[in-house]
Every structure is written in structure tokens, then in C-alpha cells.
């Protein structure tokens, strides 16, 4: 058993974060009291592909604690069903080097090495946590039950707003619970409540990484809890004014120039019966594109975008020149961030 810590503030500097550190313990003994007293319960585990019979697999695992023999075995999917009690033979002498295993397969001795091996005498797992103090803005709690292929069997977090939050996870610990709540498929399930941006958000046994139109409404949703939403109306933003489109040229620090089209939009944001704020936004387009990075498939150029524009400059006759300077400065900063190098002539 060993442990280590990671200081995430070294890589992600956040002035609002006083502490952002991870704590990990590996090789902790798993608590399997029933299996230690009565022995493991071998059942068939595995998966069936949604694309037919070309991708199917079966192996052996304990139906209570989820521990797998070493090796876990390779069964015929046509003869064994997932969840079926395994009554076949074990081969406790099977552990061998990958080289020897490959040689036996080449010689045709596949029956013996496809059988499951011996149960591990000391099953182990891992625990991890991340403590963040000072940078979280949400308040909530979440609990995740992983799927059979998850790296983290159980996980969750507790958010306390500005005070911080705690993330935690287990590796193989809690498999007994996972095999009873989410034994099949590859969709982890989450249940939790969050409060942020004047709304309460909930998930009730929802898929962690997928939304489906067939999901019931109670599974995932949100509601306003800010009284201002009901007294003054919802907060909205709309364009109340815009300039004509103007053609200009952006001059980059390396001496290259690019033709662009710029336009200013005046946005008004606020509640229906409340106080409203106004701001200007710069919208620009560049048909040939302004290169900012050297990449094969992410794209090298910016063909346009939108960014805030100073209110003091929007009403003057020099806004076009100011817009070109803002675009050049933004692209130059991205070139420095991506370590861009101009292609050879």
C-alpha cells in the first residue's frame, strides 16, 4: 500500500483557489467479508455489442464482490450468458508469462488457457480525493455509480460554494453496490442536486455522459429559485442597435495583412421590469482566415468571431481602426499561446 499527493495549483494557477490538492491511496485491502467466509460466487460477466455478434466477450467474476480470477478466463459467448452461474472448470496453475501464453495459442492449446485461473488471495483497490478551497461557486452534492467498465467504481462530490468542494472516488471498492445497482451496460449513473446561477439543477439516476429524448422529465431538469425571476421577469439579452458592415485590414505584428469585415452590435441585458445594462460587441469575418497555430486537423486559421468592444470607442469615428487593432492583438496572443511559426515562403 502506498500513497501520494498532487498539487494542482502548480499547473492551474487560480488566484481564488487557496488549496487544490489531490490525495491518493493505492493497494488498500478490499472488504469482502462474505466472500472470505463463504468463498466467491462465480458468475459469467461480459458484454454484447450493439452492432451484432462481431464484438462479444465473456469472462468470470464474483457475483458478490466483483473480483475476477487471475486470469479472468475467455468463454464462448454462444454457450454462456451474462449473469449465468459459472459451473465450468478452473485452472489454478494457469498464470504464466505473455510469451508462454502466446506460444501455447500458436500451438493450438487454447482450451486450458481459456479457463479462469485462481481467485486472488488479497484483492486490493484504491481511494482518491481532491480538496479545493476558495474557487467553487456552486452548492450541491452528487453521487455516481460506475458501470462495469468504469475506472472509478463509485464517485461523487460535495460543493460548499466559496468555501470549496470535495471530490472523491473509489477504484474497485464498492463493487458489491455497483453490481446490484448498475450491473450491465456502459452508462454510469449519477444522482445529485446543484444550485448555481439562480437555479436548482437535479439529476435522478441519469446517464452521466448521455441525454436521450426518451428520458423521463423527472430524471434531469432545473427550476428558478431566484425571487427576482418571478417578480421582475427573466433575464434576457437582445441586440438593440448595430452599425453597417465595414471592410478594413488587420495588420499583424509579423508584417502580414488580412482583409476583414467588421460590425458593432449594441446589446441590452436585464430583466423585463428591472434595470438594464448596455454593452458593445465586435463581430468580424475574414474569408481567407488569419493563421494562429500549426495543427493538422484542429484548423490553423480564425475565420471570424465575436468579442467585447470598449463603449468609449464605439461612438467615435475611429472605431474601425480600433476594431482592427483589437483583432490583431487577440490573434497575436493566440499565436504566442500556440507557439505559432509562419510557414516557409
Quick take:
With 345 residues, this protein is of the alpha+beta class.
Key terms for this structure?
345 residues, alpha+beta, 3 domains, nine-stranded antiparallel β-sheet, five-stranded antiparallel β-sheet
* Helix and strand pattern: EEHEEHHEEEEHEEEHEEEEEHH
Largest sheet: 9 strands, antiparallel
Strand content: 35-45%
Uncertain segments of ≥5 residues (pLDDT<50)?
A: none
Based on Cα principal axes, name the global outline: elongated
Summarize the amount of helix as a percent range: 10-25%
- When the domains are counted, the total is 3
Structural class: alpha+beta
CA-based gyration radius: 29 Å
Give the rounded overall mean pLDDT: 89
The count of β-strands is 16
Separation, N- and C-terminal Cα atoms: 58 Å
Number of contiguous helices: 7
Explain what the structure shows.
The protein is of the alpha+beta class and 345 residues long. The longest helix has 20 residues, at 319-338. The strands form three sheets. It has a nine-stranded antiparallel beta sheet. Strands 12, 13, 14, 15 and 16 form a five-stranded antiparallel beta sheet that branches. Strands 3-4 form a two-stranded antiparallel sheet. The protein has helices spanning 33-38, 98-106, 110-114, 175-181, 227-231, 311-314, 319-338, and strands at residues 2-7, 19-29, 42-48, 56-62, 124-133, 139-145, 154-160, 165-171, 189-196, 199-207, 220-224, 235-242, 246-251, 257-271, 276-291, 301-309.
Amino acid at each position: 500500500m502506498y500513497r501520494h499527493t498532487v498539487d494542482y495549483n502548480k499547473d492551474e494557477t487560480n488566484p481564488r483557489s487557496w488549496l487544490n490538492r489531490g490525495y491518493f491511496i493505492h493497494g488498500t485491502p478490499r472488504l469482502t467479508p462474505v466472500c472470505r467466509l463463504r468463498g466467491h460466487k462465480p458468475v459469467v460477466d461480459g458484454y454484447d455489442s450493439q452492432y451484432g455478434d462481431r464484438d462479444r466477450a465473456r469472462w468470470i467474476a464474483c457475483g458478490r464482490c466483483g473480483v475476477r480470477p487471475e486470469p479472468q478466463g475467455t468463454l464462448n459467448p454462444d454457450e454462456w450468458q451474462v449473469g449465468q452461474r459459472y459451473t465450468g472448470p478452473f485452472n489454478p496453475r494457469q498464470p504464466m508469462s505473455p510469451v508462454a501464453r502466446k506460444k501455447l495459442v500458436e500451438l493450438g492449446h487454447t482450451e486450458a488457457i481459456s479457463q479462469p485461473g485462481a481467485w486472488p488471495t488479497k484483492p486490493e483497490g484504491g481511494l482518491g480525493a481532491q480538496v479545493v478551497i476558495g474557487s467553487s461557486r456552486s452548492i450541491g452534492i452528487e453521487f455516481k455509480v460506475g458501470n462495469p467498465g468504469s475506472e472509478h467504481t463509485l464517485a461523487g462530490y460535495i460543493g460548499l460554494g466559496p468555501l470549496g468542494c470535495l471530490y472523491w472516488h473509489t477504484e474497485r471498492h464498492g463493487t458489491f453496490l455497483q453490481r446490484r445497482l448498475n450491473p450491465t451496460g456502459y452508462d454510469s449513473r449519477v444522482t445529485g442536486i446543484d444550485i448555481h446561477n439562480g437555479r436548482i439543477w437535479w439529476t435522478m439516476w441519469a446517464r452521466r455522459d448521455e441525454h436521450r429524448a426518451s428520458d423521463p422529465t423527472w430524471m434531469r431538469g432545473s427550476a428558478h429559485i431566484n425571487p427576482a425571476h418571478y417578480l421582475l421577469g427573466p433575464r434576457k439579452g437582445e441586440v438593440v442597435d448595430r452599425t453597417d458592415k465595414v471592410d478594413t485590414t488587420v495588420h499583424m505584428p509579423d508584417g502580414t495583412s488580412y482583409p476583414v469585415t467588421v460590425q458593432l452590435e449594441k446589446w441590452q441585458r436585464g430583466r423585463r421590469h428591472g434595470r438594464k445594462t448596455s454593452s458593445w460587441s465586435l463581430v468580424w469575418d475574414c474569408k481567407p482566415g488569419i493563421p494562429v497555430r500549426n495543427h493538422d486537423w484542429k484548423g490553423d486559421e480564425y475565420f471570424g468571431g465575436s468579442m467585447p468592444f470598449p463603449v468609449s470607442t464605439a461612438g467615435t469615428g475611429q472605431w474601425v481602426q480600433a476594431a482592427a487593432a483589437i483583432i490583431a492583438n487577440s490573434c497575436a496572443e493566440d499565436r504566442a499561446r500556440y507557439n505559432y511559426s509562419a510557414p516557409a515562403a
